[in-house]
Design goal:
This protein is mainly alpha-helical and 245 residues long. The protein is 80% helix and 0% strand. Helix 5 runs antiparallel to helix 6 and helix 8 packs parallel to helix 10.
Length: 245
């Protein structure tokens, strides 16, 4: 049954697209009574968020590659981001949530893994630390997959303190340094906007109070970092220019 459910989820993007096309066809035919416009908006917005998510971490990745540095980025924040999205993806996949309601989490997870790999490469991370991190990620995946269905409700609740422990160290680091280093304004602005949009799509497609609380927290914490990037913009540019000389 579990395998059938997971295979069904792989076809979810196609089903969501067909649902949208069916609604568009009904609108074109004038069958407005057969269309739930708010659900159509939620599905369409969800697919747009997934498409946009391919660019969420890309500016951050490119910024790190150009600078050949991860200065100003808290390693703990990067590791925790990977854990957050592992939990989010597996919880929604195993719960049977429509793909259009969480698909960007899959895309962002891959991008977070790329960022962690870049951090290891540019900071010369020891093999022992890399092995510990990979082992931890693997153990988390195994534990979630093996977890009985009746206990999985705790997973989104775990995301709340984990999300705080991811963003708060970065916020503190920014305050302490008086700059935001290689943090990308585009990345955090898109995170903020995407989380805000997800509050609406989750309410329409798969209402879950703990997930909604998590998105609200994401809007708040990412919004603070956006404000820091703007506030420290001049100081950060001066620091980057001085290091490049």
């Amino acid at each position: 049954r579990r395998v059938h459910g997971e295979l069904s989820q792989l076809l979810a993007p196609a089903r969501n697209s067909m649902d949208i096309l069916t609604d568009v066809g009904n609108i074109a035919s004038g069958n407005f009574a057969d269309v739930d416009f708010s659900l159509l908006l939620a599905r369409t917005l969800g697919l747009l968020i997934i498409a946009g998510s391919f660019g969420i971490k890309l500016p951050q990745i490119l910024k790190v590659v150009r600078a050949k540095s991860v200065s100003g980025i808290a390693p703990s924040s990067m590791y925790i981001d990977v854990v957050v999205y592992i939990i989010s993806v597996l919880y929604n996949l195993l719960r049977g949530t429509p793909f259009s309601a969480y698909g960007e989490s899959v895309v962002i997870l891959v991008q977070n893994v790329v960022l962690v790999a870049l951090m290891w490469f540019y900071s010369g991370t020891r093999l022992s630390e890399i092995g510990l991190a990979v082992g931890t990620f693997t153990a988390i995946v195994s534990a979630i997959v093996a977890m009985p269905d009746e206990y999985r409700f705790v997973l989104p609740l775990l995301l709340i303190p984990i999300a705080c422990s991811s963003r708060i160290p970065q916020i503190v680091t920014n305050f302490r340094l008086g700059s935001t280093g290689q943090l990308s304004l585009v990345t955090f602005a898109m995170n903020t906007g995407g989380s805000a949009a997800r509050i609406f799509t989750t309410l329409k497609q798969a209402p879950d109070a703990s997930i909604l609380l998590g998105y609200a927290l994401s809007v708040t914490l990412n919004g603070i970092i956006v404000a820091q990037i703007l506030f420290y913009w001049s100081a950060t540019n001066k620091l980057v220019a001085a290091k490049s000389k």
